[in-house]
User: Fold these one by one.
Assistant:
Number 1:
Amino acid sequence: MDISERDYIQSIERGFAVLRAFSETLTSPTLAEVATATGLSRPAVRRILLTLQHLGYVTGNGGRWSLTARVLTLGEHYSAANTLVNLAMPHLERIAERTRESASLGVLDGPDVIYAARVPVRRIMSINVAVGTRVPAFATSMGRALLAWEDSETVAAVLDATTFTPYTARTLTSRDALIGELEHVRAQGYSHTYGELEDGLISLAAPVRNSSGAVAGVLASSTSAGRSTPQRFRTEVAPILVAHAERLSAELGYT
């Protein structure tokens, strides 16, 4: 939604930019490091950090800053208020029980997919996957299942914002190749990737629709090449994933 300059509050944008500066590589940054990461001036960053400290979201010690546990309440409030997450959890638990592999709910956010809910079974990826983790849409089964049924304008906007990084030798790095893959996903009704985000990672994702028929999220399941093969995992898990995605869609009002 477009917003007028008069209604736009830049200080809020800057506050969230500072919060997003904290990452796996910047867990306890200095003020200067936050300023570099955000592109803001040091005086502006200092005022924002002191405000966030007063509100209880960050803490400072020895010139370094860290997030506090209060930040987690933002995600908790989202989960508590989000019907999709609440309805998805029993399905994720059942998928994990039946497959003995991790199950996740993903939603699209620009060129990325955000893990909105997750039932972990074992760690299969070297990256730290938890609720709130972002992964690139173009290189993941979740992203492709989310994009496959989007309108052409949304897909074009996502691809325009995508840096086609070759994470592995298998990663699709061509815009045209990805568009062709989205057509394949639509035809089979789910997405299947192998070794594109990380070597040996096998992943499936099926679309979840809301009452209007739009894809609101995806249910996904992943394993490693050491535990299964791409074909066997697809044969055994895809029907389970698709069935739960259809049931969840029905619970959201899709007919």
Number 2:
Amino acid sequence: MVTAGPAEGERTAADRLGITAGMAVQEVGRDDDSDTALVEAIAARTGTDLVPEDSDDVVDVVLLWFREDDGDLVDALMDARTRLADTGAIWVLTPKSGRDGHVEPSDILDAAPTAGLVQTSSVSASKDWAAAKLAVPKGQRSPRHR
């Protein structure tokens, strides 16, 4: 069965997350409720498999699936940051409002600075998942990346 791609001018989830060909993307915190279609779209866009969660490779993007009962968000962000290239981003994927495991956006905003990150944007990643983009502040990047 052949399905049509996105309509001309329509942005895909990979577009909204700024995923481009060749990026190294690592997925952390995946569970049964994670959006498989989103992950497949990202892998298709990069043209490579996602970096395994247990890898120590430096990556351009970390997809951090996080739910209300997943523990301490600051700890999860600090762990994710250790894998991140200076100019990379962490996308915190949380269940949308009204869904099990929903995380308040203010919780992400509060946790980011403690982990040495700033929130730069937020998007709807899929029907059930919201995404907040966190990055290392420019002043904290290696001199070659400022």
Number 3:
Amino acid sequence: MSTPLLPALPDESFRRVLCIAAHPDDIEYGTSAAVAVWTSKGVQASYLMLTRGEAGMDASPPEATALLRMAEQTAGAAEVGVPRVDFLEYPDGVLEYSIALRRDITSTIRTLRPDVVAVGTWEVEFVAGLNQADHRAAGVAAIDAVRDAGNRWVFTDLADEGLEPWSVRWLLVGGHTRPTHGVDVTGEPLERGIASLEAHARYLAGIPGHPSPRQMIPMITAMQGRAMGVANAVLFRVWDFQAPPPISRGE
């Protein structure tokens, strides 16, 4: 028997999307093409980087690297219609899950009030191989902060600052080994996704043997497209917090 095709993500209700990542460039390895689809429909999208990526270039001192990577990330986001990129200053390469990190992500969620939060997978082994430590910490902290954002009795000081609880409806996890939905990015969204990674030109130039974005992104999205029966796609594992819990459906 053939494997059933994955359904399209029901994004008709999307109004505001917040993408959370450990480093500048993480979102550009596929997810940004999906962001291009959403922003073309009028969805407001924002990015939150938990580090400035300062440990990512061996030949460049950290502070100079941070400034470069922040600028490239801002440019990459603009290619897919994202006007706002916020950067926290947690240390790159040694990002740790912490209450402070959860609080800072919660603060951003309550400030921006997204109905969708997109993160990378926290799995140790994911679709691209062994996952990097910062990515794993970022994913777990982000999913916990999604719950924290809606709980009045967690981080009560945020409410004192005027940041009232906010409940996110959708959680999207990119790179997960068990995706449930996909976004068709064939055509212009794919081109914009490629351009978003190309914006990281100086960073990518320092990675020996890194494929060009025009080679890499079409290859990744074509592989994922087969799971949907389309030319190019980005896949996510999706939770809808307004849906009945799986246990109530006998799953």
Number 4:
Amino acid sequence: MSKYKILKPDQSYTFSQYFSLTNPTPEILAEFEYSYERTSLDLSRYPNEIKYLEFLQGYLQRNIRLFNPVAEISIREFLIAPIMAEICDQTKAHLYSEYPLNVDDKLKGTLDYYLQNSNPLLVIEAKQSDIRRGFTQLAVELIALDKFLDNQSPIIWGSY
């Protein structure tokens, strides 16, 4: 781990600024006394029939053919939003887009998508490129949500 502090104590940081940091993700997370582990997940399956699945598949295939995803907003509008709407319809979750979160000067900004029902379900960070730095931003957003919820939720999921 890094012997020096990455985050400057007198500086404020938004979630999007973590994307710009070039330090390895574990070092940035260590600044908040968090870590992560790479492991396989055994996710539970949705027990009910998924309605509109054929429509959604066709819709997404058409959109992939029609547009060139040169901007994050394009990816969000044409690919991610339709999937999120269907997930929320099926699970009766609430969908928040550009959800504001302000824990402190180091953990603030907006979550691209936040799904919630009785528990926080999922945080989605949409990026056009650079999976490692996008993951770092997502990880910091999950730390902020964990602190915001005062460690009340046993699991907070994230997706990039």
